Each structure stands twice: as structure tokens, then as C-alpha cells.
# Entry
Amino acid sequence: MSATTEHTNCLRCGRTLTSTTSRTTGYGPTCRAKVRNAQRTADLTDYKPAQIDSARELIEDGAIIPLRPRIYRAVSSDGTETYLTARQGCTCPAGIKGRNCYHRAAVAILTAA
# Structure
């Protein structure tokens, strides 16, 4: 996964991002620390280790963007599609079949932050 977008505002709090690292990841240093902490405390028992790793990568790449409270737009692993994702469901192929996906794991992490 790789996000090609450079963010100007924090994806979590909306503040203006000034550093290159923050613009690349989409999170300022404080919010990035909160998201990192949430990765350790979020309830991810329903997800496989590979899904959790992909969810972390999705967040680190800034490829999951909040649209409304608890509703996100997530980029596919190959970067060609986007999916609407919430904690309860996702419009990706796995989510449509009612299975857990790494997009939902990413939302679980972000909503725990």
C-alpha cells in the first residue's frame, strides 16, 4: 500500500500539518502518538495477525480518511479502489460477504484513539 496524497490537515483532529512526516502520514505528532497507543489497546481479537498488520500499514500510509464520525474511506491494497468502511461493515469484497477485513480493523484502531 502506498498513499500518494500529501495531507494538509490532520486526519484525526483537523489541525494544519507543518512537517513533512506529518503531511505524509496524515497525523500530527500528538495524534500519531494517540493512534499508536490505540493500536496496542484496541480490541482486535476478531482479526487475524495479517489483517492487523495491514490495518496498521493502512493507517501509517494515511490511506484511511474520515468522512463522518466513525465512517471512513479506505484505499484498497493495490490503490485502485476505495471502500466505505465503518466498524460494523465495509464495502470491500470481504465486507460485502460479511467477513472481517483489515479496513474494519483500521477503523477499530482509529475509533479507539
The helical segments are 20-25, 29-41, 49-60, 93-96, 102-112. The chain has a mean pLDDT of 90. Residues 29-41 form the longest helix (13 residues). The two ends are 22 Å apart (CA to CA).
